[in-house]
Known about the structure:
The chain is of the alpha/beta class. It is built from eight helices and six strands, in the order E-H-H-E-H-E-H-E-H-H-E-E-H-H. It has a single domain (about 10-220), classed as Decaprenyl diphosphate synthase-like (Undecaprenyl pyrophosphate synthetase, 3-Layer(aba) Sandwich), CATH 3.40.1180.
Amino acid sequence: MAYDHVPHHIAIVMDGNGRWANKRFLPRIAGHRQGVESLKRCAKACDARGIRVLTVFAFSSENWKRPTEEVSGLMDLFAMALTREVKQLQADGVQLRFVGDRRSLSPRVLRSMEEGESATAHNTRLTLNACFNYGGRWDIAQAAQKVLDQGLPIIETHLNRAMSLAHVPDPDLVIRTGGEHRLSNFLLWQAAYSEFFFTDVLWPDFDEAALDLAIDSFAQRERRFGMTSDQLDGEPNLADGT
Ligand code: IPE
Ligand code: IPE
Ligand code: MG
């Protein structure tokens, strides 16, 4: 296919790992492990298609409510996968950024994050934002607090600058795998004008073809940002004579 209308920034709610594992009579953590493989494949595919920013929801502020065993399994997997993959990310020119509340994370997880970020800080091909212990409401609240601490008025430009994804433009396309049609507290502020694509494909099964379906769908949309179609086409507006 031709990639003439690719989004600059794709954000993904990587959902369905648990069900992928259940279907195979495997423990849920096996689904999360496969989810890491799917993320590696997806990052490569995004780069190959000219996408410059990939933001993924890896662990939400609400995921702490899961059974302790799953939470600790996810923490271990996260730290291990990071340490293991950093060299490859480096070779692939991926700049890794972690987005979320770092306060309640273990020293081991924090260390692996800091190492991953500093090792890849100068890469420029693809920015990979991993949202970990992230919530959209947390993000808006922390941004408001930052603006207040600076003694500035709470206006959109100041909040924009203080949001955790201020280093990248807003996502053009938000994909959710796993069949649910909700945001689950992901990018509440930044997705104001994103296009949405929902698929039943479970995250571990999300491959290049599934990504292309989402990009194809995106390419057919008209993003009006509040304007009319005619305005976007640059047509004269007959109603007001301009
Ligand atoms: C998404 O997969 C990954 C995380 C939330 C960490 P789930 O674990 O939510 O998978 P399902 O929704 O139970 O299938
Ligand atoms: C959203 O998935 C969070 C991540 C993918 C990290 P969940 O599986 O936690 O969402 P809900 O609970 O079904 O809304
Ligand atoms: Mg889920």
